[in-house]
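User: Structure please.
Assistant: Input sequence and predicted structure:
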Amino acid sequence: MIELKGSEKLQVLKKADLQINTGLNALDPVLSWFAQLYDPTIPTSVWIRCQLALAEGFTNAVRHAHEGKRPDLPVDIEVAVRSESVEIKIWDWGATFDLEQKIKDMSEKIDPEASGGRGLKLMKDIADSLSYTRTADGRNCLSIVKNYTPISQMDDEEDILQLPEELSG
């Protein structure tokens, strides 16, 4: 895990929390909520990566952490848009696991034909910091931090034309 020292000192431009019931049908409302937090100083390619990481993290919480649990079990999400980073936190009520080991194990046996199984590695590739920790209240917190260099609107027009590395496989 890469730890970013001092990110808590960056100016918070926007911050919001969302609590939503378990269910993949909630992904669209989650992404709509996230879209409202966009700041024009964030390069579009960075924002798209953050959106993808959020979608993967939320989907994993629903499909894996909350599998077989009651449908009204909440997933809590917090996003802090800072002057040079986007921080996404997703809390679930599932069993804890070693994120780094799971990613390592998955990297050794990824099936390119499978419809899933790449979300954790994708989040690791996107994030500058990725962690999964147990909290005192018995939940798990997936923390995703993506750093960026603030841009002007003119810079963003060039940025959007570049396909993110994660997607240009």
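The longest strand covers residues 12-21.
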